[in-house]
Task: inverse folding
């Protein structure tokens, strides 16, 4: 009996270690790429001012002014998060810099593609216009965050999240809005019910007019027409207005 | 016996798990890039607190050599006439000679005195997160600081795309970047990485003071010792910001600064708002980064705006001339006028003699830091 008992202890111990091995193996398997089928999501972002597609040097009306947008319109699109109906989250971690530097470029829309998105049923899309605080306090970075892209400050380390330049009024007074700073990141979350197989296109609208209205009627004659720091007076008004700037038009 | 068996089983368990990991890795044919790791030769006991290098920018022999070459190369400026070393001259402990303000490429002058470059690596250990460099703390880290002077229109006045184009076209640079970073595609990041690496190796701690720390300051004259005591006493009270351990302390790394920002009462209304320019916090008005108390013999003139030419003027200022307003640091206002610090002329003289013991004459002749 004694021997049997000893053997059963031994058996248990051996089984326990096999269990450990099993745990280790299971972890390996789930970590391996390729087991999950993936698809592609394309964000088609249309830039509009009110009901009009954005074009440089065309005039648009705010409640206070006639304004024209000039080249160098640019922004960071990042921190994309897609939540499945089972609450798992896919976050590619990419930073996309959308920029229109040349007058002849047509700035009315842009396309951003993310690959390797797990297939399945999704319910929520969130993203930010800006750069998260983890990446916003050093500019010695690469890719979209490369400082030679011209979308950061060196006198006060940090990225320019959103750049809008142009002129307004009868006298063509210039304005230049560079929005940045951790507290001014523009976050969006939308219900997005779709199932992903091979590919999907999510049509998003950026309405720049919304920056100038709701809740604050932003008046370039009175409010800051030039913003080049994270703490300028006008910035919080613009950032609060920006909550309605993005919307989902359709998911195809 | 039983213990051995358990150990064996345990090892087998790990072996089986690890083997799986190994085999699941893709087989790499090429030898991974590696530059030669560089370890800093710290002065005296300073290795007790090694510099924390950023995880993605560890020091390498090749990276430092490239950074040093870039530091001295005027290619970084718009018309190829100014290098970092133009305003950070090794002969003056990497400050701009005795100039109050440096001249930029187009002849404009700024409104701040060029700070010295030494012992910068420790800001990663102790500095205020996101406010480490420039007098007003505007640069979050050394890698980000690098771009400021290069692109500032009143300094080197160049654009990053232009700098990168020039470096790519100069035949010697792509191979040097390849040696240092494993790629000859030159980016802003690698430019900043190399220069930062070089700057982190500029360490200054070989002074009469540091030598004295090892031998109970038996190398000090009585006047120098009196000055040291004044410096670290509540009377002189220099040491709260220009941190040095008192004479009797065990071996410490005496940085001579507190990695922080203070309003030292230079004036009632600041024409330069200092840290508040960055934080827009009124409480930060007139606060500037504490400069090191080391190598003062070389770094004149003094203060962020270089207003004082001599150490005597500096000591007189702290003795009884500092502004006492509400926004001024408590270490200044705790000794109200008219008495102020109430230092005698003898004490002032001794204090300055002591400050001069913090002179590292080996720094300015160090051939590892000079123009390559």
Result:
């Amino acid at each position: 009996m004694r021997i049997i008992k000893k053997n059963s202890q031994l058996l248990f111990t051996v089984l326990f270690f096999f269990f450990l091995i099993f745990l280790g193996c299971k972890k390996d398997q789930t970590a391996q790429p390729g087991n999950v089928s993936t698809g592609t999501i394309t964000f088609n972002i249309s830039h509009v001012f009110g009901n009009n597609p954005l074009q440089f040097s065309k005039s648009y009306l705010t409640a206070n002014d006639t304004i024209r947008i000039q080249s160098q319109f640019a922004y960071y699109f990042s921190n994309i998060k897609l939540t499945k109906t089972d609450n798992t989250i896919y976050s590619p971690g990419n930073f996309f810099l959308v920029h229109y530097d040349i007058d002849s470029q047509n700035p009315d829309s842009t396309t951003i593609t993310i690959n390797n998105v797990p297939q399945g049923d999704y319910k929520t899309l969130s993203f930010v216009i800006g750069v998260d605080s983890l990446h916003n306090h050093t500019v010695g970075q690469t890719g979209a965050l490369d400082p030679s892209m011209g979308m950061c400050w060196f006198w006060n380390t940090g990225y320019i999240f959103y750049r809008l330049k142009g002129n307004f009024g009868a006298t063509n007074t210039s304005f230049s809005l560079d929005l940045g700073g951790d507290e001014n990141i523009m976050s969006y979350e939308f219900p997005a019910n779709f199932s992903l197989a091979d590919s999907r296109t999510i049509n998003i609208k950026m309405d720049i007019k919304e920056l100038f209205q709701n809740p604050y009627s932003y008046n370039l004659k009175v409010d800051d027409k030039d913003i080049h720091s994270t703490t300028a007076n006008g910035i919080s008004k613009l950032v609060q207005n920006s909550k309605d700037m993005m919307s989902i038009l359709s998911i195809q | 016996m039983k213990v051995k068996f358990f150990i064996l089983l345990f090892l087998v368990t790990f072996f089986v798990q690890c083997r799986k990991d190994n085999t699941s890795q893709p087989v790499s044919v090429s030898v991974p890039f590696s530059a030669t790791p560089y370890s800093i030769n710290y002065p005296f006991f300073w290795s007790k607190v090694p510099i924390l290098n950023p995880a993605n920018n560890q020091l390498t022999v090749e990276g430092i050599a490239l950074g040093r070459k870039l530091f001295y190369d005027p290619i970084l400026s718009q018309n190829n006439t100014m290098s970092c070393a133009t305003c950070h001259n090794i002969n003056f402990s990497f400050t701009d000679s005795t100039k109050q303000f440096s001249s930029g490429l187009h002849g404009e002058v700024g409104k701040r005195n060029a700070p010295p470059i030494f012992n910068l690596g420790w800001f990663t250990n102790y500095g205020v997160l996101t406010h480490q460099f420039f007098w007003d703390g505007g640069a979050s880290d050394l890698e980000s600081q690098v771009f400021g002077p290069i692109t500032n229109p009143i300094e080197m006045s160049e654009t990053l795309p232009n700098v990168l184009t020039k470096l790519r076209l100069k035949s010697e640079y792509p191979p040097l970047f390849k040696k240092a970073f494993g790629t000859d595609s030159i980016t802003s990041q690698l430019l900043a990485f190399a220069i930062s690496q070089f700057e982190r190796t500029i360490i200054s701690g070989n002074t009469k003071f540091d030598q004295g720390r090892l031998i109970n300051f038996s190398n000090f004259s009585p006047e120098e010792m009196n000055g040291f005591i004044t410096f670290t006493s509540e009377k002189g009270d220099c040491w709260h910001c220009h941190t040095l351990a008192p004479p009797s302390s065990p071996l410490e790394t005496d940085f001579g600064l507190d990695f922080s920002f203070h309003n030292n009462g230079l004036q009632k209304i600041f024409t330069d708002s200092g840290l508040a320019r960055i934080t827009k916090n009124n409480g930060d008005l007139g606060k500037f980064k504490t400069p090191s108390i080391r190598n003062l013999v070389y770094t004149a003139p003094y203060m962020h705006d270089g207003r004082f030419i001599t150490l005597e003027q500096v000591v007189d200022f702290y003795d009884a001339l500092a502004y006492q307003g509400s926004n001024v640091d408590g270490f200044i206002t705790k000794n109200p006028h008219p008495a102020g610090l109430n230092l005698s002329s003898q004490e002032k003289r001794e204090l300055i003699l002591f400050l001069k013991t913090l002179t590292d004459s080996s720094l300015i002749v160090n051939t590892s830091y000079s123009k390559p």
